[in-house]
């Protein structure tokens, strides 16, 4: 049973549709108790970095997430759920991130059109479970104004280019996260979700 | 670099897909969910629904269509037609739309763009620019192309961006349904000033038109309806042609 963390940031319907398509069962977790029955955790998110963290802290979900991740529960972060894993973000300078991964989230500064909205290529940097069955150079669907440009290289699973190079996916033991939206990335995205469902 | 997006558009009325020529004369073209699924399988980068009935009863049909499509189609869905409020937009977004398109209501009440952007983020707000050539420029039209607004289309596009639009859907009313190609000058005039993506619409006839829209007009995405609905071109053909011409597309 996958627990989708619901902290009021955006619409979980599309993710639910993709998981239904894959035949995976899930519950939405709006408090720590709801996560108790989940053997995998999915942290989605659209919206503001600082308000997402405030909401995770207020509901007690942050502590529960940390504990479950430390125990080795398979975890997948998506979009803002990817960014929240890092130490902080230029979007909300006064909020500290979950800090599970080293690095900061910064604004895109080179591309003329920000946010990035559309299909970008994944340059797979090494063999990972996250991208099993996905080809190097496959396209995924992104919507983001901020990105992680620098982190420990051995965390990185894929990088992409949007005027400048940024990290589009990470994998560190049980912690997986993607900057793109697998639920909107066609067959490639469904494969990524399938890899998580079957992990 | 982002791939140029190819977006089939489904104009929906009475639960069916119809496609107009010059904003009139509708002929039925098929069932929406099935068509959307077919285009998804063929490699559409996004699917657009335009509710051209845009009445209260019609809205319920469209919400249901979006809901059913979102269960089977895993690329972004953009829905427009008659959206006047945050409430109407929310209903569509909750049903599975990723973006809503507004035109008339935004012309009548420009604050709507900001309200939608604050509530759902700019990425969820597409402002449709229906433009008709007047002298050396273009005039913005509203109400499905029936009403001249007196606004300069290029200036309105810039204003819409400043108000919080995340994308611009630029339709040439002179070209819509004519298959004579997109108005690349209109696309370039808006695109050169825009810091948000521009979607070209109105006039797709042949493969070269798609190329011109991105290469000459500078569009980030190209939307077309009848050439796809009537089987004149497939999405695969369009992408293969663009790829051969060294335009980046998603396979």
Ends apart, CA distance between termini of chain B: 15 Å
**The CATH topology of chain A, please?**
Rossmann fold
Mass-distribution shape of chain B: globular
State the helical fraction of chain B: 25-40%
**Multimer state:** heterodimer
Q: Total number of β-strand segments of chain A?
A: 14
Which structural class do you get from the secondary structure elements of chain B?
alpha/beta
Largest interface: A-B, 31 and 30 residues
Strand adjacency order, main sheet of chain A: 2-1-3-4-14-13-12-9
Q: Which percent range fits the helix content of chain A?
A: 25-40%
Describe the structure concisely for a colleague.
Chain A is 25% helix and 31% strand.
Topology of helices and strands:
The complex is a heterodimer of chains A (199) and B (251).
Chain A: E1 2-5, H1 13-21, E2 26-29, H2 32-35, E3 40-43, H3 49-58, H4 61-71, E4 75-78, H5 80-83, E5 88-89, E6 92-96, E7 104-107, E8 116-121, E9 123-124, E10 139-144, E11 146-148, E12 156-161, E13 165-172, E14 175-178, H6 186-197
Parallel strand pairs in A: 1-2, 1-3, 3-4, 4-14, 5-7
Antiparallel strand pairs in A: 5-6, 7-11, 8-10, 9-12, 12-13, 13-14
Chain B: E1 5-13, E2 16-21, E3 24-30, H1 32-42, E4 47-51, H2 56-70, E5 77-80, H3 86-95, E6 99-102, H4 104-108, H5 111-120, E7 125-134, E8 137-142, E9 147-152, H6 153-163, E10 167-172, H7 184-191, E11 198-201, H8 207-215, E12 221-224, H9 226-229, H10 235-244
Parallel strand pairs in B: 1-4, 1-12, 4-5, 5-6, 6-7, 7-10, 10-11, 11-12
Antiparallel strand pairs in B: 1-2, 2-3, 7-8, 8-9
Helix pairs in contact in B: 1-2, 2-3, 8-10
Tell me about this structure.
The complex is a heterodimer of chains A (199) and B (251). Chain A has a single domain, classed as Class I glutamine amidotransferase (GATase) domain (Rossmann fold). Chain A is built from six helices and 14 strands. In chain A, strands 2-1-3-4-14-13-12-9 form an eight-stranded mixed beta sheet. The model of chain A has no long low-confidence stretch (mean pLDDT 95). The relative contact order of chain A is 0.17. Chain A is an alpha/beta fold and 199 residues long. The two termini of chain A are 12 Å apart. Chain B is of the alpha/beta class. Chain B has one domain (5-244): Aldolase class I (TIM Barrel). Helix content of chain B is 37%, strand content 28%. Chain B has helices spanning 32-42, 56-70, 86-95, 104-108, 111-120, 153-163, 184-191, 207-215, 226-229, 235-244, and strands spanning 5-13, 16-21, 24-30, 47-51, 77-80, 99-102, 125-134, 137-142, 147-152, 167-172, 198-201, 221-224. In chain B, helix 1 packs parallel to helix 2 and helix 8 crosses helix 10 (235-244). Mean pLDDT of chain B is 91; it is low at 21-25. The chains are: A alpha/beta (199), B alpha/beta (251). Chains A and B meet through helix 1, strand 8, strand 10 and helix 6 of A and helix 3 of B.
